[in-house]
Amino acid sequence: MLTFTIRRLVLAVPTLIFISLVIFLLLQLAPGDPMAQVPLTVPPEVKEKMREALGLGQPLHIQYWKWLVQFFWIEPQVLIDHYLGTSFSQGDLRVISWQTRSPVMDIVIQRIPQTLWVVGTAYVVGILIALPIGIYSAYRQYSWFDQAGTFVSMVGFSVPPFFSGVLVIVIFSVHLGWFPSIYDTTHVVDDWDSFVYQLRQMIMPVMVLALQITAQISRFMRASMLDNLNQDYVRTARAKGLGEYTVVMVHVLRNSMIPVVTVIALGVPSIFGGAIITEQVFKVNGIGQLLIGAIQANDLPMVQTLTFIFAVLIVLFNLIADVLYGLLDPRIRYD
Amino acid sequence: MTDKERFVPDEGLAPASTVLPAAGELDEFTKPPRSQWANVWDQFKTHKGALWGGILFLLIVVTVFLGPYVWTIDPTHIDIRARNQGPSLAHPFGTDQLGRDMLARMMAGGRTSVSVGIAAMLLALGLGSLIGVMAGFFKRLDGPLMRLTDLFLALPLLPLLLVMMMLFREPLNATFGPEQGIFILIVCAIGITSWMPTARIVRGDVLALKEREFVLAARSMGTTNTKMILRHILPNVLSPIMVSATLGIATAIITESALSFLGLGFPPDFPTWGRLLFDATDYLQQYPERVFWPGMAISLTVLSVNYLGDGLRDALDPRIRGR
Question: What residues does the ABC transmembrane type-1 domain cover (chain B) (predicted)?
Answer without folding.
Answer: 110-309
